[in-house]
Amino acid sequence: MLFSVPLLVTTALAASSPGWYPTPEIGTIDNDWTDALDQSLEILAQLTLPEKVNITTGTGWMGGACVGNTGSVPRLGLKGLCLQDGPLGIRLADFVNVFPCQNAMAASFDRSLVHQRASALGYQSRLKGVDVFLGPVVGPIGRHATGGRNWEGFSPDPYLSGKLAYESVLGVQAEGVIATIKHFIGNEQEHYRRAQEWTDVFNFTDLKLPVSSNIDDRALHELYMWPFADAVKANVGSVMCAYQNVNGSQACQNSKLLNGLLKSELGFQGFVMSDWFAHGSGVSNALAGMDMSMPGTDAGEDQTVFWGEQLTRMVANGTLPKSRLDDMVLRILTPLIKFGIDQDTIPNFASFDDSTIGNPHPRATNPEQTREEILNYHVDTRNKFTADVALESARGSIVLLKNDGILPLTGTNTTIGVYGVGSRMGPNGAVCGENMQCSDGALIEGWGSGTAYPTEYESPYEALHKKSSLRGTHVTGTTESWDLRLPIELAKTTNINVVYVLSNSGESTASVDGNIGDRNNVSLWHNGDELINTVASYGPTVVVVTTVGQVDMNAWINHANVSAVLLTAPAGDYGGQAMADVIFGDVNPSGKLPYTMAANISEYIPIVTEIPEDGAPQADFTEGIYLDYKWYDKYEKTPLFEFGYGLSYTNFTFTDLNLDVKEISEFLPPRPAPVHIVKPPSTKVNIEDLYVPEGFEIVDGLVYPWIQNVSIPLANSSEQFHFANEAGEVSDAAGGVGGHPWLWSTAATVTHNTTNCGEVAGRVASQLYIAFPDTGIDVPATQLRGFDKSRLLNPGESQTTEYNINWRDLAIWDVELQSWRVQRGEYQVYIGHSSRDFELRQTFTL
Ligand SMILES: *[C@@H]1O[C@H](CO)[C@@H](O)[C@H](O)[C@H]1NC(C)=O
Ligand SMILES: *[C@@H]1O[C@H](CO)[C@@H](O)[C@H](O)[C@H]1NC(C)=O
Ligand SMILES: *[C@@H]1O[C@H](CO)[C@@H](O)[C@H](O)[C@H]1NC(C)=O
Ligand SMILES: *[C@@H]1O[C@H](CO)[C@@H](O)[C@H](O)[C@H]1NC(C)=O
Ligand SMILES: *[C@@H]1O[C@H](CO)[C@@H](O)[C@H](O)[C@H]1NC(C)=O
Ligand SMILES: *[C@@H]1O[C@H](CO)[C@@H](O)[C@H](O)[C@H]1NC(C)=O
Ligand SMILES: *[C@@H]1O[C@H](CO)[C@@H](O)[C@H](O)[C@H]1NC(C)=O
Ligand SMILES: *[C@@H]1O[C@H](CO)[C@@H](O)[C@H](O)[C@H]1NC(C)=O
Ligand SMILES: *[C@@H]1O[C@H](CO)[C@@H](O)[C@H](O)[C@H]1NC(C)=O
Ligand SMILES: *[C@@H]1O[C@H](CO)[C@@H](O)[C@H](O)[C@H]1NC(C)=O
Ligand SMILES: *[C@@H]1O[C@H](CO)[C@@H](O)[C@H](O)[C@H]1NC(C)=O
Ligand SMILES: *[C@@H]1O[C@H](CO)[C@@H](O)[C@H](O)[C@H]1NC(C)=O
């Protein structure tokens, strides 16, 4: 496919990233983790060097029940942690719910629903014995329509992503489970994210280095890092660093990113874990600010361990300052205590073996060490609460894009023909492989690590059938999509057609129909365009699109018989039922598009697929801050459907706009003074502790913190890494958890009334956009700065909608100043139904 995007080329991006050292220590800014930190300091004082290392290093791939498992400290009764994907369900476990993916949730524009979904995920994690939930995702943010993992994230609008990430973190962590915001940062495409994967697994032998996301400072702050700041503000316990390079430096050993931006500027207090096998060296990762190695080994055949024994050595021999290891340990222990991780529960399921009884060490190679244990207790974590949340979430995610009045279906004497691969379960049932790498049935989720096993799935066809038998309508159908004779025969006999089409993508752990993670195109799969057009030529047709991202609708959107179009991202267990609820009008659709649907697909930013001669692909984010609707506004392009668009079976009107704006400063006040905490001196390194204790049985294939290869002497290092103490410059925007506290202060409150002026009850997501003053600095025409999902309003009913605008929401990132700056002049506030459909407008001047 040909892509050509008029890009805004300001300055060529130099692919380099400055050093930023040392790692800011936990507790040096004001935060509410102080009590937990005090307790971790007490634990720290009792730990030996290998015990500290054990807390930071995974036991290796398949080194335990979970996808990630850390070492334990048996002497002090500290268990190893269970880290599990995420983000739409508990992966590789039985009796859990598959919730709608985050991209579906973004379409709900519903903070409270997203919060409840996160509570349910936290609750199920806790019941399964998961300590660290690997979600939510805000990177990818969705720069590329074809990005393989977009469905795992929310939306290319950073404000929407940020608010929903905030709720997700709160929801998970309130259940006694640590949330993980990922992947920090610029992880926008699957292609070439990790060189070894793409060379060894997919044969891209010319590749030498992972793709480098080259992002300018302003776009990093106003777009890619923005939602991470919200998650940090919500006290997220962990951050996962990304596979690919940023400005030429691998994201997990990029000190500017981890030390300078995440830990200093955003004041992140928790721990940074590597993405699985993204750990690429020993000392450099530690000094750059990474705190936990996952899964503990690399993916190569010889299972290289960068920490474990090596971390013990590098601290013992003086190469890595003890204080850095101590800080890693404190950053891991403190959120565990703060969020009440239960030391008595251990995982009651096994990721790598679904039998009830089996060997707890799937990697153990020594037959004498393979013992039998109960691995899976088959704990059913599903209940009315989780099921209701999953169903409500699926309903809230459905976007009505077109409706000539055919929906909802009300006739009692109609025959409904149901078509498309997306209408029924695939031939292998709902569960297809450990990564759900299939696409030959209804789309429940994408593929890769961000999946969970469906247990309650009812296909769209079954759901329609069930409802229709209660209403005296008749349902018939076929999934045949290539040989169109059968669909034609059926269409001749039906009154209304419903065609379920789809488009799928996933992680580059698997290739599905030749799509290695990222989609090869934005067309419908399974001959969807032709199927729709064929069926529609026989009568009124409702098209139901389930998709991981934008799709090309040009082939049929204007067909006279395509009477209605519904869209959802993969919506989990209850996606089929929710869609039937909407089609028959039991639920009024209220979703809004969380991205812009292009009229011309050449407007989507292509992923980088070419490998240059030096083997180091470069992704220059030259559009800067102008992503999605901001790009359409800037270049005055008309999309097919804009960001925020979505119809209802009723109509809403907004009135009575009221602004209450504070006097706010142009610049941030001086940042709060650093906090000085009294830390006891680091415990002395005892040489005897460093070796495997006598009588300890090493399980082959697991990673341990002790020095095992005694033939390498423990020489003392005369010098530490020379850069380890070079001070990075602290930004004026730092000083609190989530950045300078002032950023989060209220600058304005806005209210208006929302009235249902149509015929049926419904809910609406009202949207607040702001246009910044013209000060000569390039800014987007408008930016989302508020959204609110109304309650269910009956015809004629009203409610008052309120928004809280923060200081940050009115600021731009000033690259010279290296801080945020509110503009002076006239701001405009719009209340609308989408990013292009504004109903109310007012101005204020700062
Ligand atoms: C990446 O490079 C750009 C352009 O030189 C620069 O503005 C930005 O600060 C750099 N970011 C990082 C994280 O190194
Ligand atoms: C490290 O963790 C492993 C696995 O939980 C455990 O067997 C071992 O005893 C721990 N080592 C230390 C020093 O606590
Ligand atoms: C990669 O190449 C090897 C050897 O040429 C071949 O066996 C394998 O099937 C190829 N894998 C893929 C994914 O193309
Ligand atoms: C210290 O330990 C690290 C990790 O094993 C190693 O890379 C480094 O070479 C060691 N330094 C000396 C002087 O042996
Ligand atoms: C239902 O529709 C069929 C075919 O369109 C028609 O023959 C029949 O009379 C209708 N029945 C009722 C009860 O309207
Ligand atoms: C797009 O990709 C899908 C899935 O691999 C494939 O079925 C379809 O033929 C492709 N469409 C085009 C226009 O290449
Ligand atoms: C629409 O459907 C009717 C049958 O209901 C058919 O006669 C007509 O040709 C169709 N229109 C198009 C454009 O295919
Ligand atoms: C889509 O945009 C490209 C690039 O601007 C242009 O060449 C092409 O004609 C456009 N296609 C349509 C159908 O407008
Ligand atoms: C909503 O309003 C539009 C335009 O005012 C009108 O065409 C449409 O019929 C109304 N829809 C409903 C469901 O009230
Ligand atoms: C131990 O280190 C020596 C010296 O580097 C090396 O030759 C040997 O292979 C290592 N042994 C193991 C078991 O890794
Ligand atoms: C290395 O030197 C440091 C600082 O002099 C000392 O504290 C440490 O015990 C020495 N380690 C070894 C293994 O000799
Ligand atoms: C609507 O706005 C008016 C004027 O601002 C206010 O008095 C009234 O209470 C509001 N009505 C509702 C239902 O919120």
What fraction of residues sit in β-strands?
15-25%
Helix/sheet category: alpha/beta
Q: What percent of residues adopt helix (DSSP H or I)?
A: 10-25%
Strand order of the largest sheet: 1-2-3-4-6-9
Shape: globular
Q: Based on DSSP secondary structure assignment, what is the total number of beta strands?
A: 29
Main beta-sheet annotation:
6 strands, mixed
Low-confidence stretches: 1-12
- Rg (C-alpha, Å): 27 Å
Distance between the termini: 47 Å
Small-molecule binders: 2-acetamido-2-deoxy-beta-D-glucopyranose
**Separate helix tally:** 18
Oligomer: single chain
Residue-averaged pLDDT: 95
Structure described in brief:
The protein is of the alpha/beta class. It has 18 helices and 29 strands.
Could you characterize what this model shows?
A hairpin with a 5-residue loop joins strand 28 and strand 29. It contains 18 helices and 29 strands. The N terminus is likely disordered. The chain is of the alpha/beta class and 846 residues long. The structure holds 2-acetamido-2-deoxy-beta-D-glucopyranose (NAG) (12 copies).
What is the strand and helix layout of this fold?
Layout: H1 34-44, H2 49-56, E1 68-69, E2 82-84, H3 102-108, H4 111-128, E3 132-133, H5 158-173, E4 178-184, H6 195-201, E5 212-214, H7 217-224, H8 226-233, E6 238-241, E7 245-246, E8 249-250, H9 255-265, E9 271-274, H10 283-288, H11 309-316, H12 322-338, E10 357-358, E11 373-374, H13 384-396, E12 399-403, E13 415-419, H14 460-469, E14 474-478, H15 485-491, E15 496-503, E16 511-512, E17 515-516, H16 528-536, E18 541-547, E19 562-568, H17 575-583, E20 618-620, H18 629-634, E21 652-661, E22 746-756, E23 765-771, E24 783-789, E25 798-806, E26 811-814, E27 819-822, E28 826-832, E29 838-845
Parallel strand pairs: 2-3, 3-4, 4-6, 5-7, 5-20, 6-9, 13-14, 13-15, 15-18, 18-19
Antiparallel strand pairs: 1-2, 7-8, 10-11, 12-19, 16-17, 21-22, 22-25, 23-24, 23-28, 26-27, 28-29
The structure holds 2-acetamido-2-deoxy-beta-D-glucopyranose (12 copies).
